[in-house]
Amino acid sequence: xxxxxxxxxxxxxxxxxxxxxxxxxxxxxxxxxxxxxxxxxxxxxxxxxxxxxxxxxxxxxxxxxxxxxxxxxxxxxxxxxxxxxxxxxxxxxxxxxxxxxxxxxxxxxxxxxxxxxxxxxxxxxxxxxxxxxxxxxxxxxxxxxxxxxxxxxxxxxxxxxxxxxxxxxxxxxxxxxxxxxxxxxxxxxxxxxxxxxxxxxxxxxxxxxxxxxxxxxxxxxxxxxxxxxxxxxxxxxxxxxxxxxxxxxxxxxxxxxxxxxxxxxxxxxxxxxxxxxxxxxxxxxxxxxxxxxxxxxxxxxxxxxxxxxxxxxxxxxxxxxxxxxxxxxxxxxxxxxxxxxxxxxxxxxxxxxxxxxxxxxxxxxxxxxxxxxxxxxxxxxxxxx
Length: 385
Prior knowledge:
This protein has helices spanning 18-27, 43-52, 64-72, 93-101, 116-129, 143-153, 182-187, 190-193, 198-214, 307-311, 323-343, 357-375; strands at residues 5-10, 32-38, 82-85, 105-108, 133-135, 160-168, 218-226, 237-244, 249-255, 264-271, 274-279, 285-290, 296-299, 381-382. It is of the alpha/beta class. A nine-stranded mixed β-sheet has the order 13-12-11-10-6-9-8-7-14. The chain has a five-stranded parallel β-sheet with strand order 2-1-3-4-5, with helices on both faces. Strand 12 (285-290) and strand 13 (296-299) form a beta hairpin. The model has no long low-confidence stretch (mean pLDDT 97).
């Protein structure tokens, strides 16, 4: 392919955090260029943001509806190839559906929508259109997460028995949503975030990571949600007991009121012969423990790793890689897939995999099942999708 993929963006203007992350990730490999955007619901911010990114004046839009309409009317060799949606949760579904209807591929922030029903409708639309949707579950992009997954997949630890996954933050230890914190305001608002707070925001990441590495699906769960900070509308803390379809059992905790914590996502998985430990705040290290021999430390960028881990490593060993690079891996794999579709070239989907609409459905089902379990008096809730 003799050109870059053309990306449009909805949301992510200069008053937003995640938009810049997506743009850095998309630029990581020189495969993608931002050509247009509807970067804010505030018209002034939308225009200023577009100009600061040196977009053509005619392709700085003030609504996503205008952007999709005008981009679809452009010649095929000029219009965007795909759109990235980085708005708050409640504003994912409508632009994603409309983009697919107009023939554009989609990258979308997680969680995919605010309800399981919307996620299913989106999946149906993806199937009908035959287009590609990428969901940015960032942590699946880390090379040592892929290494852990490959080791489990190859049966190195025997049958997987136990899963412990936790995501602990402290940034909502106070009622920040009433103190001018815009991120806190929408994430704790049921109308904009959905029916779950911490469990929807970061618990879904922990859930996705557990299923991704183990290759098993949660089949039953038992959940308890808490509102620790008085006056908050959604949960800021919770725990879930898990049963997996492959026989493993586990525990998931998610909290945003662990004062002093930053983004402490941790996963430990144990099988018959050994297991792994991975810490998002020390992402280049994978600790491997064995039943009958000393523990081992695997490091990103070394020759001992699997081919898929190597493919998703960007620097030699000892040079730190982290969140931005993991995000970049997801964009690169999506871009390679899209390039293959455009050129008709065969793409190895095992090597360039990325989270899809089906992961989005699993995430929304997790939220639904956790809330249903919390509100019921049953010990175990069957995981329904």
